[in-house]
Amino acid sequence: MVLDAAAAYLALKARDARFDGRLFVGVTSTGIYCRPVCRVRTPRRENCRFFDTRAQAEAAAFRPCMKCRPEIAPGLSHSDSSRSLADRAARLVEGAVHGGQTLALPALAAQLGVTDRHLRRIFQAAHGVAPLDYLTTQRLLLAKQLLTDTAQPITQVALASGFTSLRRFNAAFAERYRLQPTQLRRDAADRGAALQERPLRLAYRPPYDVEAVLGHFARRAVRGVEAVDAATLTLRRTAAFQHQGVRVAGWLEMRFVPGQHEVHLRTSASLAPLLGSVLHRVRQALDLDADPAQIDPVMALLPLPARPGARLPAGLDGFDIALRVILGQQVTVKAARTLVQRVVDRYGEPLATPFAALTHVFPSPEAIAAADPAAIGQLGIVRQRVKALQALAAAVASGAIDLQRSAPLAATLDALRALPGIGDWTAQLIAMRALAWPDAWPASDIGLMKALGSRDPKVITAQAEAWRPWRAYAVMQLWHHLETST
């Protein structure tokens, strides 16, 4: 643990939101564990036990608080890890749980290229619990959030949380939390309508530069797919996800609530069966798991006015991000948005939504891979970029390239660079926004050169050494300064 027990207790007494998700307190007199921001009466010091993770608290037989709800606390981002084997294993576990997938330890070990015995050993050393305990914690906390904030049937919640049967789900819930799932639904009949309107809550650590993040999305918004309402701090967009082999489309509304350090999420009913995956994607898209205490001191070294709360905004789909990056090669943000708009108008899927600004879903990789190259060229896209788009689309559609946070960084970068028309600038930006790589550095970026006053990539790369391992956050800050000061 970064903090000793005495310092941890001081953070708890102050309800310091900076430690939210990095510190959990188990109260021996109640058997409950809480976030440090919990608003209940502060427990006595002798009754407190402190843990780094929710899984450790649950392994010590504490159950989650119903008031502060540990399941909505910010987690650990890609940038919090050293990209060790144990950290990648944890990300794969989290991705599988939120994607509603089953995950066996031997299969996870094989995916990482190690034996399951070695995986258990290094996972225990890094995270303080066994992989299966960590997996169970993730599943049960997702289930608890769905039971609390949605009206989904309990059987659907169990399946969405990765349990293969309702019996196993009930047994695990009773063993860990000492109550039945139905006890969270006792008044379901009375609050069913309210649950349909209640947003899902996702917490983040303050500060958070909401203006910069929403501005980034607004300047790149594609008509029909996304819309930003700056007045209400709301981002809306359409999206499609793979669920049990089927592409499921719907809409999302993400509203920042700065006073609560939360984002409130509403979705279309069509996305209800895969809310776990949606929650996971939204956390990454808005970089809700970032730790400003680590990042902001490094950003203060930039030759810019300080902007606390730097974030690395991404998207809900890796292919969506990659297509935009390719079309942004050697053109301005405005020109790139025009090209993306043409692609969406031509190959996007129509979608009915309650919002006039949302009418289409971003094209699938299969649609772009199967399109006539000449037809894509008629949109004003040069031949080299058409080849790059279709090569990438084919690779993503076939599974040869996986553009998500848990993908292996080095192997994915190599696979991207091997495609026609994709160089290091493109690969770095895709890794930055699709793989959430915090140290990505597109050295040949014209905007960075302009912001840093040099046309030499070696010069600006040398300057950026002081910003490791957060160079991608520096990119976002430099871009924001450039885009808002001209």
What can you tell me about this protein's structure?
With 486 residues, the chain is of the alpha+beta class. It has 3 domains: 5-71, DNA Methylphosphotriester Repair Domain (3-Layer(aba) Sandwich), CATH 3.40.10; 78-149 and 151-185, Orthogonal Bundle (Arc Repressor Mutant, subunit A); 217-298 and 306-434, Hypothetical protein, domain 2 (Endonuclease III, domain 1, Orthogonal Bundle). Helix content is 47%, strand content 11%. It is built from 22 helices and 11 strands. It has helices at 5-14, 54-59, 85-98, 105-112, 116-127, 131-149, 154-160, 166-177, 188-197, 210-219, 275-285, 292-299, 318-327, 333-347, 365-370, 373-377, 383-398, 409-417, 424-434, 446-452, 457-464, 471-484, and strands spanning 24-27, 32-34, 48-51, 63-64, 200-203, 226-229, 234-243, 246-257, 262-267, 349-350, 360-361. The strands form 3 sheets. It has a 5-stranded antiparallel β-sheet with strand order 5-9-8-7-6. Strand 8 and strand 9 form a beta hairpin. Helix 3 (85-98) runs parallel beside helix 6 (131-149), helix 13 (318-327) crosses helix 14 (333-347) and helix 20 (446-452) crosses helix 22 (471-484). The longest helix is centred in the first third of the chain and has 19 residues, at 131-149. It is globular, with a radius of gyration of 22 Å. The two termini are 45 Å apart. The model is unreliable at 187-195 (pLDDT under 50).
